């Protein structure tokens, strides 16, 4: 194994994962974000379905009651 490979392996084990975002990717990520926002804007503006709102309310009530928490 070369020293370069060994160093790369050590970096991955001790630092960021291999898929971590790097500064040189910032422009690409910004462009991707702009494109995704423009594609999904109509969906974001749609009202939330009543069924989903009801489920969210039930989950919030369940969480507030402490029923979802386990004691150890």
- Secondary structure tally, helices: 3
Shape call: flat
Portion of residues in beta strands equals under 5%
Q: Average pLDDT value?
A: 78
Taking pLDDT < 50 over at least 5 consecutive residues as the criterion, the unreliable ranges are none
SS-based class: mainly alpha
Reading the helices and strands in chain order gives HHH
Gap between N and C termini, in Å? 47 Å
Work out the helicity level.
55-70%
What is Rg? 22 Å
> How many E strands?
0
Mind describing the biggest β-sheet? none
Short synopsis of the structure:
With 72 residues, the chain is mostly helical. The chain has helices spanning 3-14, 26-44, 50-65. The chain starts with a helix and ends in a 7-residue tail after the last helix.
Provide a descriptive summary of the structure in words.
The structure is a single chain. The chain is an all-alpha fold and 72 residues long. The protein contains three helices and no strands. The longest helix is centred in the middle third of the chain and has 19 residues. It is flat. The protein starts with a helix and ends in a 7-residue tail after the last helix. The model has no long low-confidence stretch (mean pLDDT 78).
List keywords for this structure.
mainly alpha, flat, 72 residues, 65% helix, single chain
What is the element layout, followed by pairings?
Layout: H1 3-14, H2 26-44, H3 50-65
């Amino acid at each position: 194994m070369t020293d370069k490979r060994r160093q790369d392996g050590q970096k991955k084990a001790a630092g960021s994962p291999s898929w971590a975002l790097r500064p040189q990717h910032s422009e690409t990520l910004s462009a991707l974000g702009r494109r995704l926002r423009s594609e999904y804007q109509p969906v974001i503006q749609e009202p939330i379905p009543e069924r989903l709102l009801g489920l969210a309310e039930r989950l919030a009530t369940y969480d507030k009651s402490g029923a979802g928490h386990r004691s150890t």
